[in-house]
Specification:
Helix content: 40-55%
Radius of gyration: 23 Å
Strand order of the largest sheet: 2-1-3-5-4
Shape: elongated
Structural class: alpha/beta
Number of strands: 5
Strand content: 5-15%
């Protein structure tokens, strides 16, 4: 089991990002199960060969698990409880906003919303495709600004730079109209599609 986790372990250790090593994010999802299975195998091996040492090892693992759960876990009473976002305060608005966007739409979504739209025909991490941001190897690989007809973001959570991109899109000279706005969640649709759907 540990061998299956080695590539992800190497990538995690080598990555120059604190998020990759943070258990709250998806990057450790492939690493943790393999390490847990490997720990179980090691404990089972030791218990069979040296039962007394095995009991000590089991006790040590239980202690480590409890300490880790207290320091980093999401359970009430843990030191890190407030660091885990268990629910969104505007969950209803997010669900309504996502439901507005058609199944075959091409969407640009903020990264905290994109996973809920990943089955759409094309999806971009906003501000892509309207402004290049880590898309391909260089800005030359950027998608066309016409590649997405819907935008869903929480403007208050955008950086100032990306908020300006969104404001430009929905300005009077921009190509988008706001079609949904509730509890800080905004959905905008390309103006030409709004006009054709209203006919």
């Amino acid at each position: 089991p540990l061998l299956g986790s080695v590539p992800q372990l190497v990538a995690t250790v080598a990555a120059d990002s604190k998020y990759v090593r943070d258990v709250r994010f998806q990057y450790t999802a492939l690493l943790i199960p393999g390490m847990m299975l490997a720990a179980i195998d090691v404990v089972a091996f030791v218990v069979r060969r040296r039962p007394k040492l095995g009991k000590v090892l089991v006790s040590w693992l239980v202690l480590c698990t409890c300490v880790s759960a207290f320091l980093r876990g999401p359970l009430p009473g843990s030191a890190a409880f407030g660091n885990w976002k268990l629910t969104e305060p505007n969950q209803v608005a997010l669900e309504r906003a996502v439901a507005i966007i058609p199944e075959d739409a091409r969407v640009a979504a903020a990264d905290n919303i994109a996973a809920h739209l990943s089955h759409r025909r094309a999806i971009y991490d906003f501000p892509n495709p309207y402004q290049w941001m880590v898309f391909g190897r260089s800005e030359a690989d950027a998608a066309s600004p016409d590649a997405a007809d819907w935008v869903i973001v929480q403007p208050d959570l955008l950086s100032e730079k990306y908020r300006l991109v969104f404001d430009r899109l929905v300005s009077p000279v921009g190509d988008f109209d706001v079609v949904f706005e509730q509890d800080g969640v905004v959905v905008a649709q390309r103006r030409s599609l709004v006009a054709s759907s209203s006919k």
